[in-house]
Design a protein that fits this description.
203 residues; alpha/beta; Rossmann fold; 3-stranded parallel β-sheet; two-stranded antiparallel sheet; 7 strands; 37% helix; 11% strand
Length: 203
């Protein structure tokens, strides 16, 4: 999720009835490391949420610099586990989210660039008995069936002359992946299912 409204967070929040207050407290460009280091996690917990969705990975990958990079099997796993423990200590119910893959294709085939980070999140869920929204798995299954041309409408475009950004989303992508996450949230947290007013329907 990002604070630029080009991640799936706004689309997720839009799926809930008025009785639910949904805050998108993600921060653009932050990893599981830098989000905590810069104080954003403390600000999120200050809101005293009942539920907190934990979604990092896209900015943890190699090439992002030492202030953000993590290793999926060691530091990323440890960071995600600590977020779970912190949330519970604060009285919130943690829900893990596997990272949304980028919509990159090579020779017409979808590129698996986030699999290791998604696997780490699933392992944290198993090890800590925490519900997991497998957004990575759902999105990957869909993207593998589509062509590069078909996914362009989901990509964020900053201006008429800018290239499509497969790491962030257009309004259509925000809505699509936000609905996916909301549908899975209703499944992994059944007591909240009645608060989701619009579920994702595969086309």
């Amino acid at each position: 999720m990002t604070n630029l409204s080009v991640g799936w967070g706004p689309g997720f929040c839009n799926q809930f009835l008025g009785a639910v207050e949904c805050f998108n407290v993600s921060k653009n460009g932050r990893s599981s490391k830098s989000y905590r280091d810069e104080g954003w996690w403390d600000r999120a917990m200050a809101l005293k949420p009942n539920y907190v969705l934990l979604d990092w990975g896209g900015n943890d990958v190699p090439g992002k610099g030492p202030e953000r990079e993590t290793d999926p099997k060691t530091t990323f796993y440890a960071n995600m586990k600590q977020y779970v423990l912190d949330a519970r200590a604060a009285g919130a119910v943690p829900v893990l989210v596997t990272p949304l893959p980028r919509r990159n294709y090579r020779d017409g085939k979808f590129v698996h660039d986030m699999d290791d980070y998604a696997a780490a999140v699933i392992k944290v869920g198993l090890d800590t008995n925490t519900p997991v929204i497998d957004l990575h798995g759902q999105a990957t299954a869909m993207l593998e069936k589509l062509t590069p041309a078909q996914v362009l409408s989901l990509d964020y475009v900053a201006s008429a002359t800018a290239k499509p950004d497969p790491a962030h989303m257009s309004p259509k992508g925000i809505d699509l992946f936000g609905r996916m996450a909301a549908e899975d949230f209703a499944k992994v947290v059944p007591k909240m299912a009645k608060t989701v007013h619009m579920l994702y329907e595969p086309q």
